[in-house]
Specification:
Elements lengths: L4 E13 L4 E13 L11 E3 L12 E3 L2 E6 L7 E5 L4 E13 L18 E3 L3
Antiparallel strand pairs: 1-2, 2-7, 3-6, 4-8, 5-7, 6-7
Membrane topology: Multi-pass membrane protein
Organism: Brachypteracias leptosomus (short-legged ground-roller)
Keywords: Ion channel, Ion transport, Membrane, Synapse, Transport
Length: 124
């Protein structure tokens, strides 16, 4: 098994729809793990073009209850891959996602809603 560290920053909550029972947010997702196969000599990290992600193993993380999501790609895909000499990989991306959120509006306008943003990993 590979231990993957994660951090997530919410850049913006773009819309909340009580009609569709969802919200749209833009997030920055960072994942870090070590792959001994990528060790190299040196003392500086390597930053790789995001298109090279297809050549590496990356965690199969997904957003639970996502209705639709996309990676930003202006002017290039917003992905960062940095490899450190000890084989540690930093993988960061910017995602906009629309996530289902079941809301109870029976007490509107005195209601309070709690919407979650959950990430999971597929088991293969």
């Amino acid at each position: 098994p590979v231990s993957v560290g994660m951090s997530l920053d919410i850049a913006s909550i773009d819309t909340i729809s009580e009609i569709n029972m969802d919200y749209t947010a833009t997030i920055f997702l960072r994942q870090r793990w070590t792959d001994e196969r990528l060790c190299f000599d040196g003392n500086k990290s390597l930053s790789l073009d995001g298109r090279l992600v297809e050549m590496l193993w990356v965690p199969d993380t997904f957003i639970v209850d996502s209705k639709k999501s996309f990676l930003h790609d202006i002017t290039v895909e917003n992905r960062l891959i940095r490899i450190y000499p000890n084989g540690t990989v930093l993988y960061a991306l910017r995602i906009t996602t629309t996530v289902a959120c079941s809301m109870d509006l029976t007490k509107y306008p005195m209601d309070k809603q709690t919407c979650t943003l959950q990430l999971e990993s597929c088991k293969k």
